[in-house]
Each structure stands twice: as C-alpha cells, then as structure tokens.
C-alpha cells in the first residue's frame, strides 16, 4: 500500500507541473448524452483495414429488432461465430442466445458502450437501435433520446476507436416536399416524423464525422423491409408483413393504408446482402456516404392480389389509420438507386412474385408444423 500511495502522490505532482516548467492545460470536455468525452479539434481517424486472413470484430446494437438477428447470422457465416456480437437491452430468446455471443448494451450508457468496444476489440459497428415511425410519434421524447442521443454516443465511440460504422436510414428520411417518383439520393429532405428527422440527422452527422475526422461512415436508406422471421414492429410499412400472417391464420386481413398507397419495398435477404456489400466495398469506390437502395414498389392492393394467388379465400378490407396514412403519403413512391448499382454493384434478387412465394414457403411450413403439433 505505501508503494501505491507514493505512486499516486508522484502522479499528482506530475500533473500539477510538467518537467519543462510549463503548466499542463486542461481541455474542456464536450458532453453529449450521458457521459463526458471529446473529439480533439485536430483529430484524424482512419478505418482499420484487414488482410485476407483477418476478420472484423463486429458489434450490432439493437440486435433483437427486425434486422439484427438475420444480420448476425449472415455475418457469422462470413466472419466466424465468435467475431459477431449481438446486443440489445431486451432478453433474447433461447435460440438467439445460444446461436452466438450476446451481451446487454444500452446505447444511452456511453461508458458501458465504450467498454464493450474496447474489451471486445470491436472494429465494425452496425447501429440498429432506433424507434420506428409510428412508435416514435407515440413517444417523441423517447425517440429523441434513442435515435439522436444514442447516435451521438455511437459516433463519438466509433471515431475514437477507428471503427467502420454502419447506420441505416430509411424512406422516412424524406418528406412531402421531396420528389416522390422517383426519389434521388440527393434532394430536399423535410420529414415530418421524429423518426425521419432523426434519420436525416444521422445521415448528416455521419457525413460530417467522415469529412471532419475521417470516420469510415456508411449508410443505406432502406425501403420497407419484409421478413418472415419477425413480427411487425410498429412501422408504417408493416402491413406488408402482417398480411402474410393473417392470410395463414385467419384468412382475413385489415389494412391500415389506402389500397393505392405505393411505397418501395424489399425482401430481408436483399436488405442484408446490400448491407454487407456496402460495408465490404472499397472506400475509393464510394462516391457518397449515404445511398438509396431499392428492389420493388407496390401498393396494398397489388400485394393483396399476389397473396390471393396463394390464398384465394383471403378477404381484404381497409380501415385507414390517419396517422400512418399521412406518414406514407409523405414518403417516396419509388427509390432511384442508380448510384448504388454503379458504385458498388448493388443488384436485388427478389421481385414481388418471388417475395410472396418465399414468404409463404417460410410461414406456410411453420403453420403446418404448428397445426400438426
């Protein structure tokens, strides 16, 4: 203990006066979120590069949402089970917990998140924690905290530790004054939901950190994502998932959007493929840091007609939710994704007929197993 005390005293004296007689200046710390930290004004960060024998160490925040579990599965096949850590603030199902590393991570706890990155030697971070459109409108303060303050924590940690950072954006990043058919990568963005506002903020902050500090920030604007692996989670485009569950379970579906509401959509496998491809793309191939990606665009009526080819007895009614309809009416009808296709070779695999067939092949088999049991 005397040694520790003497060492502590020596360090204290050293901090009070340097050997050259110059006082050590204390730099004010900029606070964002819940913990103090700073990015030096002259900092310059660079993403970690990997040789062919190396793999990135990956952290996925908000991992129990619609995309996190599927992305973890894809990345574990690519980089190895133990190199991909799934995280969330919720308790995972057994199959998720035992499929690979899972930890508790609260993006609003800067210190905890920083420790996770350091202790696990993280090099790639996929930031999926967010409150979606309809849910965010019901709780704006929480959406502001999660979608904006949480993002600030992630950006600062990614910059400090030289991470390659992916943050998804959305069709919700556009508003009623944006061109809707098609919507290009660069145009007016004036969303009218806290979800959309927070995503525009994420796009601009990520690009700022890239140009200011050299952060390797990458972002894709997702269309509505359709998946058989997850239940609808409060998004405006969730009707396109719900219709399959209702067709199998009850044969009746009530849509909360107008039958002619056209929105861009994508099957989850295409979404995950695009995410991995843009993360693996050489930095010099990227002409921008935020890209539109698209696969198909359809209306509830067109989707119902395709579903009825598999379930002819499906009865479809419309009970329009004014909040969700207003959101959908402000979003793009079609995405222009030519820059993604040109810069890093993006190409989708699923159109509407393939999407519907694939969804029923998954959900239909699960339903038959359940009925047999």
UniProtKB/TrEMBL annotation:
Pathway: Amino-acid degradation; L-threonine degradation via oxydo-reductase pathway; glycine from L-threonine: step 1/2. Residues 58-293 form the NAD-dependent epimerase/dehydratase domain. One of its GO terms (molecular function) is L-threonine 3-dehydrogenase activity. InterPro entries: Epimerase_deHydtase, NAD(P)-bd_dom_sf, NAD(P)_epim/dehydratase. It comes from the Eukaryota. Its EC number is 1.1.1.103. Coiled coil: none annotated. Pfam families: Epimerase. It is an enzyme of class 1 (oxidoreductase). It catalyses: L-threonine + NAD(+) = (2S)-2-amino-3-oxobutanoate + NADH + H(+). One of its GO terms (biological process) is L-threonine catabolic process. Catalyzes the NAD(+)-dependent oxidation of L-threonine to 2-amino-3-ketobutyrate, mediating L-threonine catabolism. Belongs to the NAD(P)-dependent epimerase/dehydratase family. This is L-threonine 3-dehydrogenase, mitochondrial. It comes from Mycteria americana.
């Amino acid at each position: 203990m005397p040694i520790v005390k003497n060492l502590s005293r020596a360090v204290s004296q050293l901090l009070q006066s340097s050997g050259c007689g110059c006082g050590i200046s204390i730099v004010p710390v900029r606070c964002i979120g819940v913990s103090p930290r700073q990015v030096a004004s002259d900092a310059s960060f660079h993403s970690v590069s990997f040789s062919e024998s190396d793999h990135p160490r990956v952290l996925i925040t908000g991992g129990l949402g619609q995309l996190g579990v599927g992305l973890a599965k894809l990345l574990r096949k690519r980089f190895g089970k133990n190199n991909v850590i799934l995280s969330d603030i919720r308790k995972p199902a057994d199959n998720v917990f035992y499929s690979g590393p899972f930890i508790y991570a609260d993006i609003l706890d800067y210190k905890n998140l920083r420790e996770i990155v350091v202790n696990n030697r993280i090099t790639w971070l996929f930031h999926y924690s967010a409150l979606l459109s309809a849910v965010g409108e019901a709780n704006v303060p929480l959406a502001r905290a999660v979608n904006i303050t949480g993002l600030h924590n992630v950006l600062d940690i990614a910059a400090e530790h030289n991470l390659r950072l992916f943050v998804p954006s959305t069709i919700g990043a556009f508003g009623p004054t944006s061109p809707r058919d098609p919507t290009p990568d660069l145009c007016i963005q004036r969303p009218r939901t806290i979800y959309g506002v927070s995503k525009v903020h994420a796009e601009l902050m990520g690009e700022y950190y890239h140009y200011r500090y050299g952060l390797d920030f990458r972002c894709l604007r997702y269309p509505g994502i359709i998946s058989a692996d997850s239940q609808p989670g409060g998004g405006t485009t969730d009707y396109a998932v719900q219709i399959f569950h209702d067709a199998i379970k009850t044969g009746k579906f009530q849509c909360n959007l107008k039958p002619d509401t056209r929105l861009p959509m994508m099957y989850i496998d295409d979404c995950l493929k695009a995410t991995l491809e843009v993360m693996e793309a050489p930095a010099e191939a990227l002409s921008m840091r935020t890209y539109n990606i698209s696969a198909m665009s359809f209306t509830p009526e067109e989707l119902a007609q395709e579903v009825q080819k598999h379930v002819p007895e499906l009865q479809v009614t419309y009970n329009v939710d004014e909040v969700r309809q207003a959101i959908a009416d402000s979003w793009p009808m079609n995405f222009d994704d030519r820059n993604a296709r040109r810069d890093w070779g993006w190409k989708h695999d699923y159109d509407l007929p393939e999407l519907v067939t694939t969804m029923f092949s998954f959900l239909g088999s699960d339903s038959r197993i359940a009925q047999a049991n």
